[in-house]
Write a structure and sequence with these properties.
The complex is a heterotrimer.
Chain A: H1 2-29, H2 34-39, H3 45-55, H4 61-73, H5 87-122, H6 127-141, H7 144-156, H8 180-186, H9 190-227, H10 230-237, H11 242-276, H12 285-294, H13 298-326, H14 328-333
Chain B: H1 2-9, H2 17-20, H3 24-51, H4 83-119, H5 121-136, H6 139-150, H7 154-181, H8 184-191, H9 196-233, H10 244-251, H11 260-287
Helix pairs in contact in B: 1-9, 3-4, 3-11, 4-5, 4-7, 4-9, 4-11, 5-7, 6-7, 7-9, 9-10, 9-11, 10-11
Chain C: H1 2-24, E1 44-47, H2 61-70, E2 75-77, E3 83-85, E4 88-93, E5 99-104, H3 118-131, E6 142-149, E7 152-157, H4 176-181, H5 189-194, E8 202-208, E9 212-217, E10 231-235, H6 240-249, E11 254-256, H7 259-266, E12 271-286, H8 296-304, H9 308-316, H10 344-353, E13 360-365, H11 372-385, E14 389-394, H12 397-403, E15 413-418, H13 425-433, H14 450-461, H15 465-482, E16 485-498, E17 501-502, E18 519-520
Parallel strand pairs in C: 1-10, 1-11, 13-14, 13-15
Antiparallel strand pairs in C: 2-3, 4-5, 5-7, 6-7, 8-9, 9-10, 11-16, 12-15, 12-16, 17-18
The chains are: A mainly alpha, B mainly alpha, C alpha+beta.
Amino acid sequence: MIHFLLRRLAFALISLWALITIVFLMIAVIPGDQAKIAAGEGASPEMIEQARQRLGLDQPLIVQYVRYLMRLVQGDLGTSTSTFQPIADNLRDAFPSTLELVLLSMVTVVIFGVSIALLVVANKGGFIDGTVRVVAIAAAGMPLFWTAFMLQLGLAAGQAIPISGVLSTQYVVPKITGLLLVDSLLSGQPDAFGDAFLHLLLPVFVLALPQTVVIIRTLRTSMLNEMHEEYILMARSKGASTGRILIRHALPNAIVPMVTVLGLQVGYMLSGAVIIESIVARPGVGAYLTSSVLQKDTFAVLGTVLFIGAIVLLVSLLVDLFQLAIDPRVRRGMVTRSS
Amino acid sequence: MSTTVLKVFRGGSPTGGLRGRLGPAKQLWFDGVVVGLVVLLVLLAAFGGLLAPNDPFLVDLGKAFIPPGPQHLLGTDESGRDVLSRLMTGAGTTLLSALVIALSAGVIGVIIAALASLAGGWLDEAVMRLCDIVLAIPALILALGIAMALGPSLQSAIIALIVAMWPGTTRIVRSSMRKNMEEPYVEAARSQGASKWNVVFRHVIPNSLDVAIVDTAFSIGGITLILASLSFIGVGAQPPSPEWGAMAADGRSYVLTSWWITVAPGLAIMVAAVAFGLLGEVLQARFNPSQGRR
Amino acid sequence: MQRCTRSLIAGAIVAGALLLAGCGGTSNGGGSTPTGAAAPGKPLVLLTPLNTLDPLLATTVQNDMPDDLLYDSIIDYNSKGEIVPRVATEWKAAADMKSVDLTLRKDITFTDGTKLTAKDVVYSIERSQAAGAGVAGLLSGVDKATATDDQHVTVTLKDADATFVGALSKVYVLNSTEVQKHAGADNAQAWLAAHAAGSGAYTLSDYTQGNIVKMTLNPKYWAPLNGRPSTFIMQNITEPAAVAAALKSGSANMSLLPHKDVQEIAKDSRFAAGTIPSGGLNYFFFNTQKGVTADPRVREAISLAFDYEAFLKNTYGGEGQVAAQIGSPLLGYDAGLAAPAIDLDRAKKLVDEAGASGAKLTMVYQPTRPDQQPAAILLQSGLKKIGIDLELQSTTFQNYLASLSSVDTTPDLAIASEYPRYPAAQALLNGMLNSKFVGTGSNKSQYANPQVDALLAQAQVAGDDKARDVLYVQIEKLAAKDFALRPVNTLMWEYSMSANVKGLEANPARILLNPMSLTTK
């Protein structure tokens, strides 16, 4: 067990190091003069030289790599050439908004995924099952930006659900945690909470849709497989109803693979956030990344890539540890070689 | 986002997704429709540019923003170009790029998997770990970083996605090869004095190719989506390319009054993603009827 | 009857006050109107691109907009292009044009109560130079700035420059005591990106980077304006659908939009459309030194192959003008040149004469600018008709600038827009036409004409506005004769706004509009 844990942690650290190195290589590969880009338009040659020295671009590659690693250890991701602030600070400020979106989306995925999956399994082979499958196929193929645009167009006229922004401008919510939903409650502003919640409806729907489809799929499969297990047949022979069997037996055993899938979904959610945050004007990590792309702020782009990659690695480590903790089958299974 | 599509279509159930729901006769029909749709898309990719009713690049500012109608089935964009023609020409850019990426990643993946299994030992392990690491990073994010570093363009996006996608194939093929290596016929061949190389190349790889083909087919849909997203964000195909993602990005400023400029390419992306996903299902059923579980 | 009317009026006043109080909302705590001073107007939400708040980057439109409200610049321009006092009430150039003496107002206080004095002005200039970005580019001619006493600053220049003062319109005065506390290793850039330390008409009440800036009216501001919004919110929403929804639902009051959308929204009586000139122009740039375009006949032919009127009509709905000269009309001089027009026959003749028929040329443009692509495509179709094959390449601004560093890598043709940061013709014409800027990215046509250089040097030290204008007219005529570059059109901004927003005004020192002139009822 300890052996497995250590191996898993070592793998996490090596993955992080590999990610860092991949990102550094990407930085090294950039064509053009980074100093010129950093100094901005209309910069005099002196300003460009200043920028070059400030960024350490006149050093050999190995030296730059070591300096890069040392800066990372101190949490320094470099300075954005568009905001002139430390990238780490920008990400720290932007992250809560994305966190809020992703967390709420995952909750939505679980709630709707599980309930629809239960419906579908109970209705196996029936109308609901078939309809959900067809809808699922369409939903999985929809480009996220397209779904976002369609919803914006559709909801714009109604004015009931806001199609962009995080909060109506008349509310002022102090930044305690950075999560608007939490902060509005903490500062005793329930109408701000409601307003923030409304602003989350569109982005959460867009993000949650494809992932819900995946969960329905996964749960359906594992629950159906469970249904064939012996203990289920025994329960049935004792007269237990389908619903009871589903909830008391099939579902709990299907939870573990679901957690794995959920953990994996963090990566997809973050990718989705990158695509839609600027469309819905949410100031999160995704919006920061897309605006950095537009402003050719390559350092900020790569810093954000590193940041997101590190989060995904962390989450997958946590998922593995969680699986280890709760599922004896995994513990047994770890003795055999994976993949 | 790529493997979201994968997961939906890899129909983990023994009966295999939507297709599995149908009886054998209807399955044949289903296969036919899907293959037909895919062939149509491929033909569009190859010849769409030639068959387009209007010049997709002809600017006529007097004809800008015409809504869909008899003259222009999908309307015109901000430069007066026929959206349908751009869509048909862009099919080539989008779909061929996706196919190139899928095939390249597939070939590279198989080669590396073969080499890894031949090398064995720690090299094999190291390659697998590298695959795991690359796969741990969301494909869109990794490809975005690479494409940005190389300089935003369609070529950069293609390279970036090949880099992001090959580990997936390697993992799956290697896994299949490992299983095949344990088959009795391999034992038999080895005991008759056949060298390891011989066995791998003549027996194990060909038998693992099914998996590779199915995986490649599955991935095309997801690749199309990511490629379009990369262009939409601005690191892939640059305007005025009629690549579908770039078209959607182009049209987003006018979505209020001229929604068709963005809606049409988005719809096209969706149709392509769905069609290729279903193709994967068909291929899986035909090649690997036993391999329902993933 | 009288009583009735009186109570009606009283009722209206009460209702209005309630409305104001309600709209002021929870965000406007202070702002009790001093007796006799200007009454604040309703809150205003302006949708505009945003980045950070550091006045160092006031040369970018994202920072300039909030900075104009949170800070005061040393001098300012009015909508006619004349320099007007702001922090400085007088600006005297020395006879040798190598220094400028500024006299400052006595009654300006920063938001923390301290008085604005000469040391703050000096600090603001020196800090920009030290940080080496943004505004520093406009101050490269400055040798040093000295405070001769609390109300006087002398700025000494490295070389004589008669029009230097204009650059000070982009230098916002910082509270030096406050900023120096946070100077750190980066000249307070990180701190000023998210905080304000100014003397402006507004104080900062909330800020999310790149997303929203909320500002509250400063009741003690030294230049009050009746109806200035009690709360000024700038928000960054990029998708036009979202912008229109925000306008229609009342959560925003004003935004730039494409022409069609502005017209569409203005059909609703709750909204108005406003168009202002921007001081910017689109230009076609040629590689005047190498390749087929080195021949002036080819350049003239290209200039004649573009349908300017159609471009204006179709891309801008007819707003703006076809440009006859390099400097915008806001700069105050008229070179008397004829506006360009399409003439394909003459163009074809010139091409054949120059032996350029069948030539293949490349044109670069930036697809992020929505008007450049249609222009490039239109030129392409025109050139096809006169026998030139034009290939279009999209590029980014940085890559384009990089390609200008040598004549060999400069593209044959390019379309780009220039927005002079402040309306000094000298800086614009000098940067674009002086041969010493070949290979730097500012002289985009790599144009070199010693006659023009000499005239520019003369204008640099000519103390008299009129004398300078005469020189500029000569320069324009020479450049036009050579077809050094082709001005295409003056750019307009079209705003969609709530009917109660008044005072939309262009300002040649602000790329978009002058937020200080806006009032709400």
